[in-house]
Specification:
Number of helices: 3
Largest sheet: none
Distance between the termini: 43 Å
Structural class: mainly alpha
Shape: globular
Number of domains: 1
Radius of gyration: 12 Å
Oligomer: single chain
Strand content: under 5%
Number of strands: 0
Length: 66
């Protein structure tokens, strides 16, 4: 069975609530991060995995704080 192609941010395996748990601020910061993650999975559908995306989001957050 073929995996469904991600069509929108709603198809991401993580959402804004997950990002809030990592310390992201509600609003623009979460929106921009979700867009970056979505662009990542558009390039490689196999990366649409909860644990993978959470790790990428953690890394992005840490690099912003430095």
């Amino acid at each position: 069975m073929k995996k469904k192609e991600p069509l929108s941010l709603k198809d991401l395996k993580i959402n804004g609530n997950d990002l809030k748990k990592l310390g992201y601020k509600e609003g623009r910061e979460i929106g921009l991060t979700l867009e970056k993650l979505f662009n990542l999975i558009i390039e490689d559908k196999t990366k649409n995995d909860y644990n993978f995306l959470m790790n990428v989001a953690k890394t992005m957050k840490k690099s912003e704080e430095e």
